[in-house]
Amino acid sequence: MTVAFSATGTDLNSDMDQRFGRARQFILVDTETNAATILENTQNMNAAQGAGIQAAQNVINAEADAVVTGNCGPKAFQVLQAAGIKIYHTREDTVGSALKALLSGTLQEADSANVDSHWS
């Protein structure tokens, strides 16, 4: 399974970015091989609108199976859900700790967005 984590840095020790659409980047982790790659999201950090939808499309294009993030707005949530991508909300500090929580089964799949549109 490939999981996209919203992150402020480029490795598993990086802080989670609590924003999905305006995250600095995503760390894509293959949970079978532990291989990690970076998916840049800088084009959406200062977007006037549509950041969540575009970030969701980028994650879909990267063929992620799941997203782990702090917050996900309704438009991004809808796009990800329509593509069959599972969404998990977390308050973990780092990508590594969020990955451990996901693999241990302590994160529950989200059934709705947890912030309004244009959350920063």
List its salient traits.
120 residues, alpha/beta, Nucleotidyltransferase, domain 5, five-stranded mixed beta sheet, 5 strands
Describe the structure.
By secondary structure, this protein is of the alpha/beta class. It has one domain: Dinitrogenase iron-molybdenum cofactor biosynthesis domain (Nucleotidyltransferase, domain 5). Helix content is 28%, strand content 21%. The protein has 4 helices and 5 strands. Strands 3-2-1-4-5 form a 5-stranded mixed β-sheet, with helices on both faces. Helix 2 (51-61) packs parallel to helix 3 (74-82). The model has no long low-confidence stretch (mean pLDDT 92).
Layout of helices and strands, plus pairs?
Blueprint lengths: L1 E6 L17 E6 L5 E5 L1 H4 L5 H11 L4 E4 L4 H9 L3 E4 L5 H10 L16
Strand order in the sheet with the most strands: 3-2-1-4-5
Oligomer: single chain
Integer count of domains: 1
User: Mean pLDDT score, rounded?
Assistant: 92
In short:
Helices cover 28% and strands 21% of the residues. The protein has 120 residues and is α/β, with parallel strands linked by helices. Strand 4, helix 3 (74-82) and strand 5 form a beta-alpha-beta unit.
